[in-house]
Amino acid sequence: LWTDVKIYYWSSDGSYPAAWPGQSMTFSHKIGNVIYYTFEIPAYADSFNISGIKNDNSGNRDQTPDIKVSTVVDGNIYYMEWNNGNAVGNTNISDYVKIYLKPNSNWTSSNAWFVARIWNNSGDAWFKMIKEGDYYYCYVPKGYSNIIFCRMNSSADSNNPNSYSWDYKWDQTSDLSIPTNGNNCYEVTGSSWSYGSGKWSKK
Question: What is the pLDDT of residues 111-121, one digit of tens each?
């Protein structure tokens, strides 16, 4: 696994907004032992590479080849998997479902942040939830049927994959089934904390 994952992007007219290795990427989610990061590339950029410190105690930075934005971007969101500089997989956002959480005022207190833990018979995954007004959202892969929303300890670093564990959980919902009827938003209702009341609706 890489640490200190960064993205370096530029345009063919010679614009280089940051010195290599570039800007830090944001942790998105973890499925098994595979860790995913995100970054929104500016519209003017046409090339980029991604790098990270190798997990071999060498301190060396490994990187992908230079990548043309036009060859990988399809819509607004796309992901790639890399192993020692080689592409080993990618998918389009159509393979994902957008799930929302609307926490109550208790859950949003003390600078808490939020995670969705999903699972099925193949394993589990932890997803960082992104604030959007009064809601939080994440994109989860299709095919998962179960979900728990977690309120996380504010002292834990939300950009550190090791923070995505029960050790840093303050509160959680009950085990929930991901709806298949179009409902995509779970609201923590009333003044509940862990295992309290809630309801699904469509956003």
Answer: 999 999 999 88
